[in-house]
Amino acid sequence: NTNYLRWKILFPELKKIISDEMDGTLNSILGENYEITSVLWQRNFHIPENIKDEAFSNFWHFDFRRHKKKWARVMIYLNDQDDAESLHWFKKEDSLMAIKNKDYGRYSPENLPKYLNNLYNTSPGPLGTMNLVNTADILHRAGMPLPGKFRDVVFVILQSKNAVWEDSFNFINNPADVT
Question: What confidence score (pLDDT) does residue 107 get?
Fold first, then answer.
């Protein structure tokens, strides 16, 4: 897997940084036997309001489980992020309410179902902030940088080699895609 090898060349200390900072938490979620399966660096710029298309995960969405084995995402901020550009997310209870109502599509901020308005949280933090996020099960979106600002993030996907999802929340992919 060239992507797997590429992160080892470009970010050789990444695994050590994550395990030094988060190993206990990751072990409690993924078990002791997990691995980095992908690393992605992303820079997001401000998009003018007249452009209504989705650009970089700035619409509300779920990532869904995609695999039977548990996985999680670590976000590492490569610049300071205020409320506007940081991750926007819903608590799991509110995300489950959206799924029960079959609201698991992709929604622009202005088209988010009304019952979810103003329930979301943001994750501001300085350069170097590391967030552990379950984007499989929570409704979330990328923040929108203000004019003249940008958002630099490294996304690290960690997957368990053994642990499976334990709850009855039993879909792997978007239920809307299942025929």
Answer: 87
